[in-house]
Amino acid sequence: MLKLKHLHKKLGDFELKDITLDINEDEYFIILGPTGTGKTVLLELIAGMYHPDKGEVWFKDSKINQLYPEQRNIGFVYQDYALFPHLSVKENILFGLKIRKMDETEGRKRFQEIVSLLNIENLLERFPSTLSGGEKQRTALARALVTSPRILLLDEPLSALDPRTKIVFQEELRRIHDKLKTTTLHITHDFSEAMALGSRVGVMHNGEIVQVGEPVEVFRHPNSFFVAEFVGAENIIKGRADGRVIKVGDGIQIKTIYEKEGTATLTIRPEDIIISRKHLQSSAQNSIPGKIVNMINQGPLFRITVDSGIILTALVTIQSVEEMGLKRGEKVWTTFKSAAVHVL
Amino acid sequence: MKKSGVWGQNIFFTSIVAVSIAFLVGFIALTISMILIRGGPNLLSSIGTREIQFAIRLSFMTSIISTLLCILVAVPVAYGMSRFKFCGKRFVKTILDIPIALPPVVSGVALLLLFGTTAFGHALAARGLEFVFTTQGIILAQFFVNVPYMIKVLQSTIENVDPRMEFVARTLGCNRMQSFFKITLPLARNGLMAGIVITWARALGEFGAALMFAGATRFKTETLPVSLFLNMSVGDLKLGLAAATILIIISVTSLFVFELMGGHQFEISRQGN
After folding, report:
1. Which of chain B's termini has less CB crowding within 10 Å, N or C?
2. How high is the ipTM of this complex?
3. From the CA of A33, how many Å to the nearest CA of chain B?
């Protein structure tokens, strides 16, 4: 539906390089990347605040590079909401309808629908400066959605909210998208948002899209060291690959199902590592002895770090820790399947 | 001992600051009060004279018209200077600032040369637009001298309005002009008001450029400052001081209003609604 073809843009310190993306109708697409990587500039390019230096923006079958922002029918919500401070919440929301001279009955119906969907009936007469972060967020969303945009662009919509409001609002965003089915492009630096909301995610690094896929897929199979680190992968270990064996640390051989030669980085998710007292004979093909160097209680789980010549972190339930009587300094085995060893 | 030395130095420095402030406030207040004390008692009877009434009317008329002209021109110029990028912008900015740096008398002479001695000026005059030694001349002189101030005040206010506000308005369907009138201008309202007040007050007191360009003729181009000048130069202290008193009252009032406008942030003023 929205197609970006080889977009380039240099703007001060930001540079977007060869951005190519294809966003489907009704999709909730997340662009994930660290702060300062040019994500906002990308949204502003799509909305028409800037012209790309090179490349094209397509909507369905028409190229929209040359269209003014007001001709693109795009909903835009900034991180700080950019509500019009001199207008009440109601006037803010009605702004787009009035400008587009929408039929009054239809406009009123749409207004009511959006206001009740976002649950802001009681805010309508207030001014932006008196609203909380969450209330501003709802108002900004309502203002963008009321004009039935072809695509909704959200610039870090949750990052200015406190953690509790954030969780609530994340659910709201999902509910709103389920209801209205507005194609949404949401940018964030927080992978958990991508996991919770995104049907697909594109990871951005230094102005480039480095990986696109379903969030679980990206999380499970990061295609680079950067993505692995950014989506919160642990146990990132460098070594030398020789077919389906990777040599790491001091002569440790780790088996994998991925074939590679030469320098390689492997990742193993902590939840894929089993910790035991004895050497396990199972279908798991890697079993390495080591010593517990750290144990951190994280609610129902323990995060246990084992030094086996390489440092591995595993997640273990409290129950298992108690049953095995695990303590710091004790000898244990770390066991994981060859399929759990991802090679970058 | 050392400590008391530091203490002594601090007291010394604070004293210098305090004395300087006290001296300057006293000096200004005393000077201004001289006019109010001398001019005040005769103010009402002077206002009754035909000459002062003429000066008041002419001053108000010319200053209001020139202020309106300033708004008309300064709003788009200030917008362009704060929002558009173009080559030679620094050069344009310097040109726009020239009237601020020039002594108004020089501006007056320049206007006189342009409209009085060139084919351009004669062509305008032939079409009925006579500026030299006329009321229109006063207006033009006030406009020329004051428009840069209006631009400066407006430009800094517009620069303070987040351009993303305009952009969001455009995603909602506004064209550039609509987003300017519906978003930027209302948000720059205080700056605009402050600009109007300061420009008007300066126009009312404009003397040098108007004197050169429009002349100082009784009952013709006699604004309040010109009236003050004419009456003082023939020794009519009573009428002269009346004009001065009126000018002081207007200046101080508008300074006060200006501070009020500039000191208030828009959001705060709107919170009370």
Report:
1. N
2. 0.77
3. 22
